Protein: Hexosyltransferase
Amino acid sequence: LKNKNKVKKKIGNSFDTEMFRSPKLVKMYNNSYKYSFPKCEQNVAAARISGFDGFPDILKDFLYYRHCRHFPMILDLPDKCGSIEEPEDIFLLLVIKSSPMHYERREVLRKTWAQERSYKGLRIRRIFILGTMGNNFEKERLNKLLKTEHQEHNDILQWDFQDTFFNLTLKQVLFLKWMKRNCQQVNFLLNGDDDVFANTDNIVDYLHGRRDNNGSQHLCTGFLIQNGFPVRWDRSKYFVPSQLYEKNVYPNYCGGGGFLLSSFTALMIHSYSNAIPLFPIDDVYMGMCLEKAKLAPAPHIGIKTFGWYIPSKKIDQYDPCYFRDYLLVHQFFPNNMYLMWHQINDPNLKCGVTNSSRTIQT
Structure:
């Protein structure tokens, strides 16, 4: 790329140095910078990849624009984590991948496990990360919806890119860049989808119980996927041709429904992502970055991103006694989410013998 300018911004006692493609600084307020970038053009050379004509359209689109990493920010949260002069002491930042049309999910999360609050004196804060959807009037309506939510709740980061499955990796990369600039002092992050159920009390207890790690050391834990392999069937949502990934096995990674990161590890992923081309499956991409950084993800028995098991058909699969000890479960929808949160927090909930210690052990 030509005419690269190096932009430095002091954050505390460190500098955030990034290379941009001919950025123009438009406005600076508090600890937020806004840039304008030339519109990212289609990489027509991608069409010369062997077998390209037979790829699904969504994959073709991904390959045409894979190089694009700079997009205008529509909604920002420059003071979410405090200011440069007075950063807020945040123990757990909830980073929730959402879609513009998922208003009901966001509203339920705000009232349940993603409430911004303090638990045992440790602050929990919430951010939804999104792109855009639709064209013309539909896109305009959805953007107005998000702006209205943002004005009321101050919890949305939105960039002007198409919010699709294959762009989840881009969403992660853009968030990590934002975190580096605005929120690197947090201790830990929960990175998850808007259809997971998380017991944030248990998560804080688990993280705070790790006396050897206050977020300044490596931590990436969740439902560990080992020896995962690329799907070569072109009708699958997860289709990855050998032209895009030659190996038959993915690096180890945590299922993208929800996993926990220390701020150290999040910033390491951000650093190494700059040298790793975007990949259409976001959790695999995170595993690629960890492998490059020589950091290993770890399993946690209390995180279930591929469903859960109830040992008897005579018991409701949403029995709160089976969920009060978990950290995170996928997949939940708003009605069950709302009910479960209130049930597990009911002081009158009576359950049989449980092994509650399982949620704080890895």
